[in-house]
Design a protein that fits this description.
The complex is a heterodimer of chains A (180) and B (133). With 180 residues, chain A is an alpha+beta fold. Chain A has a domain of 106 residues. Helix content of chain A is 29%, strand content 38%. In chain A, the strands form three sheets. In chain A, strands 3-7-6 form a three-stranded antiparallel β-sheet. Chain A is extended. Chain B has 133 residues and is an alpha+beta fold. Chain B has three helices and seven strands; from the N terminus they run H-E-E-E-H-H-E-E-E-E. In chain B, strands 1, 2, 3, 4, 5, 6 and 7 form a seven-stranded antiparallel β-sheet that branches. The chains are: A alpha+beta (180), B alpha+beta (133). At the A-B interface, strand 3, helix 2 and strand 5 of A face strand 1, strand 2, helix 3, strand 4 and strand 5 of B.
């Protein structure tokens, strides 16, 4: 009986040791200085101590998984932008001004969508004269084709028109094309 | 017997008349102000062959597509842009200050079939393949 209890105690202590002591990881690296001799390093990674788990106070709404932020082959993501347009000064009527502001806002929204989906080409030029920058210019260019973009909302306020626009990208169709 | 049948045929033909057009829309805005807009409509000179896919429909009192387009330019433009839009944008920043921003929004030339039926205009996109052009 005494033998069995001793054996049980030994087994329990071994199990506890195995839990607390991490398994050493052996890393092999080639030493280029000593004629390519293989060196072995033993790394013992201590297990992170798990303390009391406290709930994190969320300061912003939790994102609905990373599936919605990055395009993959299996998900669908929505690009939402707000385009802005200004009414010209020399218009015949307020209605015409609003219509023109809306058109400009639509163009701006499409530009933003193109910027997000297809990217921007940036070209910078600095002219240095007498060890000083005399002129610095940055040119950006966007060239994109967008299909099935939908206008969600249109707002007018103080001569400014805001158009909310959305486009949906299906990963099954677009992931391969955009990841090139 | 012949006269009623003929009248019915004529009435049906008048009620559902499908015409074919090519439409193109372009909008240029400079520094967030629309400066130029053009909507070009041309009747197809040869019959367009291909599958017609409904694009959009509007209620109207107009009799012809050109008069409808002239009065509802924005509605038509939104419909065309939703189908497909090409955007080209050029910005210039000099000494960390925005100098110029030009956005050019265009739609590709789109072959459409337009149907007027009982106060409703239906615009259908004709999908032309290389074989039926």
């Amino acid at each position: 009986m005494k033998k069995w209890s001793l054996l049980a105690l030994t087994l329990v202590s071994t199990a506890l040791m195995a839990e607390t002591c991490p398994t050493p990881q052996v890393e092999k690296c080639q030493d280029s200085e000593n004629g390519g001799a293989v060196k072995e390093r033993t790394i013992v990674a201590p297990k992170a101590a798990i303390g009391k788990v406290e709930p994190i106070q969320a300061t912003e709404p939790a994102k609905a998984g990373c599936d919605t932020c990055t395009l993959s082959q299996n998900n669908t993501i929505h690009f939402q932008v707000v385009g802005q347009g200004v009414a010209p000064v020399n218009t015949v009527s307020p209605a015409q001004a609003m219509a023109l502001a809306k058109r400009a806002a639509i163009a701006d929204a499409y530009r933003q969508l193109g910027e997000k989906i297809c990217g921007v080409r940036v070209e910078g030029r600095d002219l240095i004269r007498n060890m000083m920058i005399s002129r610095s210019t940055v040119r950006t260019q966007i060239d994109a084709m967008i299909k099935n973009a939908k206008i969600l909302d249109t707002k007018f306020k103080d001569g400014l028109c805001e158009v909310e626009m959305e486009v949906t990208l299906n990963g099954k169709e677009w992931y391969a094309r955009l990841s090139r | 017997m012949v006269r009623p049948a003929l009248t019915l045929t004529l009435l049906l033909a008048a009620a559902v008349s499908a015409d074919e057009y090519y439409i193109y829309y372009s909008l240029t805005s400079r520094d967030l102000i629309a400066v130029e807009e053009s909507l070009k409509i041309s009747r197809a000179m040869t019959p367009l062959r291909g599958a017609a896919e409904p694009l959009c429909s509007f209620e109207t009192d107009e009799e012809s597509f050109t008069s409808f387009a002239a009065k509802n330019r924005m509605k038509l433009a939104e419909c065309l842009l939703e189908n497909s839009a090409s955007i080209r944008s050029y910005s210039l920043f000099s000494s960390m200050t925005s100098q110029k921003k030009i956005d050019i929004l265009t739609t590709p030339v789109l072959p459409v079939q337009v149907e007027f039926n009982d106060g409703l205009v239906t615009i259908k996109k004709i999908q032309q393949t290389d074989s039926n052009r």
